[in-house]
User: Fold this.
Amino acid sequence: MIRFFKAEDAQGLVEFALVLPPVLLLLVFGLVELGSVLSVAMTMSSATREGARVASALVNGGGALGCSAGQSPNAASVDPNVIAAVERVLVGTGTRITLADLSQIRIAKATASGAETGGSINTWSYQLNGGPVVDGQQLDFVATSQPWQACSRDNSTPNADSAVITVTYTYRGRTPLRLLIPMFNQFTMTDHTVMAMNATR
Assistant:
C-alpha cells in the first residue's frame, strides 16, 4: 500500500490534465477572435468597394461638368448616396460591425498612387439618425468637412479623377482573451478602395 502512494507513474498524466484545459480555452478563444476580426475586415472591404462603385457611377451628379449655375444639378446628393451605400453593407445581415465604433468614413480625391489628396478629403462621422435622408432612410453619419465638392469631380478622358473611400473602425475584443492579451482588447482597423470615375467618351 505504501508503495502505491509513492509511485510517480501517473504524475505526468495528472500534470498534463491540469495544463490542457487552459491551453485549449486559449486556442478556442483565439480562433473565435480571429474569425471575428476576419469577418469585420471582409465587411469593411465590401463596404468601401460598394462606396467607391457608387462614387464612380455618380461622379459629379449628372449634367454638364462644373460648379456653375445649371451644372452638376444633382451634386448635393452624390456623397450622401456614397455614404448610404457604405452604411447598407456595414449594417447588413450577419455583420459584426457596431456602427458606433466606426470613427469615420472618408471620401477623398485619390493621388496617382491611390493615397488621399490633402485638402480634398470629405469626412463623415457617426451620429445616430443624424445624417441626411437617402431613399427614405436617415443615415447615421453626418458630414464634418466637405472640401472636395462633387461638382468639381472630373470624369473626362484621359485624366479622370479617382475616388478613394476609407473606413476606420475600432475593433473591440469579444472573448475573455481580451482580458489576458491587451492587443485583443481593442485596436483600429482601416480599409480603403480606389476607383476611377466613369469616364465620358
